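quick one
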Amino acid sequence: MVPEKAGQLMVIGNWKMNTNVPEGIKLASKIRELLSGKAYHEIEVVLCPPFTSIAHISDVLSGSDLKLGAQNVFYEKEGPFTGEISARMLLGLCQFVIIGHSERRHVIGESNLDLNAKIKEVFSQDMNPILCVGETSEERDSGLTNVVVKEQIRQALDGVEDINGLAIAYEPVWAIGTGVPASFAQVEDVIESVIRGELATCYDDVISRITPVLYGGSVSSSNVAEFLGHSSIQGTLLGGASLDACEFVKIVDETASHLQ
Ligand code: PGA
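structure w/ 2-phosphoglycolic acid:
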C-alpha cells in the first residue's frame, strides 16, 4: 500500500513509451539485481513500464520488494472501448496507476473530468492512484500556477470521499524532460500552499499531512538530494532517470539515506 505515515518515501519510475518486452525485462532484472541485499523495504519503489511488459515484469519482480504500476488506465471496467485497458484488467499485475501525467493531459488531451473518473475506477479496484498535477510555463509566467494546480486537485478528487492510498506528484510541465528541475523553494511553495492546502480544505488537516506528495521533473542522482529530507516531499517521480538501472538505483540509495 501507499505509505500512510509521513516520513516514508517513494521512488516511482515512469518508463513512458520506452522499452519493448525484452528491453523491459532486462531493465527490471538489472534494477532488481542492483537492489538485492540493500535495505530499501522502507521505501516504496515502483516501476511503471508500458502495458505490454507489465505481466512479464511482474514475474521478474516476484519475491522482491519492488512494486509495479501502470502509466494510465481507462475509466470503464470493460466493453466496446477499442484499444483501452481497464484497472480491472491490471488487477493482480500491478498495484499503482499513474493518473493525469502531463503528457496524457497535454498530448492526449485528457481533462480533469476524465481523470476524476479514472481515479474513482482505480480506487474501486483497490489499486493506488498516483495523481500528477502541474502547470505549464505559460501558466507559471501568467501567475496562474496556484489556480491551475488547485483546480487540477479539486476536479480530479471531486466526489472521492476516501483518498487513503492516493499519492500526488507535483510535476511542473516546464521541468519535465528538460534537464532543469524546479527549485526546492518553488516545489515547496506549490506543495504546501496549494496541494496540501487544498487537501486540508477538501478533507482535513490529517489527510493533508499523511497523503504522500512527490516531486517529478528532471530529477537525477545529482539533484535528488535537494528534494529529500523535507517534510513536504515524500519522494520522487522519475522519467528519464528511471530508464538507466544504475542511475535509478543511485536515486533509491540517496532516498534511503534520507529515511528518518
Ligand atoms: P523526467 O520526467 O524525469 O524525464 O523529467 C518526469 C516525468 O515525466 O514524470
